[in-house]
Write a structure and sequence with these properties.
The chain is α/β, with parallel strands linked by helices and 210 residues long. It contains eight helices and six strands; from the N terminus they run E-H-H-H-H-H-E-H-E-H-E-H-E-E. Helix 6 links the parallel strand 2 and strand 3.
Length: 210
C-alpha cells in the first residue's frame, strides 16, 4: 500500500509548457535574438535550456538569462488559467485516505508556491522541493530523494506522477513507481519508462492501493 505521492508541476498539475514557449519567444524577439523553438524543453531546467538556446556565446547567454529572469517577474505564469481543475479534488481525496503529498518541480520555489496558492491546496501539501534547491537537476534522482526524506517515506511506499522523459527517469532512478500523465495536447513524449500511463489526474486514485 502506498503512503505518499510526489507530483511534478509543469505539464502535470498545470498546463504550462505552451505558455513557457510563448513567453520565451516573445522575450527573445524583443531582445533581437533569433531562435527557432523546435527543441523539446519539457522537463528541462534553466541551465540546460539556455545552453541549448545560446550554445556558443557564454557572455550573451548569461546576459539573456538574467534578462529573462526579470522578464518572468513582469509576466508571471497565469496559473489561474492553466491549473488542472482536478488538482484540488484529487489532493483532498488523497489526504482523506491518509496519504502524504509532495511536489518536486524544476520550476523555481516562488512558482511552486504560486501554484499551491492558486490551487488552494496549501494545507494539503506536505513537501515542496524545487530543482533550484538541488545540486543536480532531473534526470538526476536528487529531487526525489530529497522529497522522500522530507515526507519521511521510502521509495517503495511512494508513487511519482510525471510527464516528461527527464522527470520519469529522475523518479525511476530514485526507485519510485511512476505514473506518466498522457500529454494533454497530443505532444509526442516518450513515456515508455513509466510503469503506468494515465489519461487524467484523477486516475491516480485507481492506483494508490496497488
Amino acid at each position: 500500500m502506498h503512503k505518499g505521492i510526489i507530483f511534478d508541476m509543469d505539464g502535470v498539475l498545470a498546463d504550462t509548457e505552451g505558455y513557457y514557449t510563448a513567453r520565451r519567444l516573445e522575450y527573445l524577439g524583443r531582445m533581437g535574438y533569433s531562435w527557432q523553438d523546435d527543441a523539446d524543453f519539457t522537463g528541462s531546467n534553466e541551465k540546460a535550456l539556455w545552453e541549448i538556446m545560446v550554445p556558443h556565446d557564454p557572455e550573451l547567454r548569461q546576459e539573456l538569462k538574467l534578462g529573462y529572469r526579470a522578464y518572468r517577474k513582469l509576466h508571471p505564469v497565469p496559473f489561474q488559467e492553466l491549473l488542472d481543475p482536478q488538482v484540488k479534488p484529487l489532493f483532498q481525496s488523497l489526504k482523506n485516505q491518509g496519504l502524504k503529498i509532495g511536489i518536486a518541480s524544476s520550476s523555481d520555489p516562488k512558482a511552486i508556491a504560486a501554484l499551491v496558492q492558486v490551487a488552494e491546496v496549501g494545507e494539503l501539501v506536505d513537501s515542496q522541493i524545487s530543482g533550484e534547491q538541488c545540486k543536480a537537476h532531473k534526470p538526476d534522482p536528487e529531487i526525489y530523494l530529497r522529497s522522500l526524506d522530507a515526507l519521511g517515506l521510502t521509495a517503495g511506499e511512494t508513487l511519482a506522477v510525471e510527464d516528461s522523459p527527464t522527470g520519469i527517469l529522475s523518479a525511476k532512478r530514485a526507485e519510485l513507481t511512476v505514473l506518466a500523465l498522457r500529454p494533454r495536447h497530443g505532444e509526442l513524449l516518450d513515456q515508455s519508462a513509466a510503469d503506468i500511463v494515465i489519461s487524467q489526474l484523477m486516475d491516480v486514485v485507481n492506483h494508490i492501493q496497488k
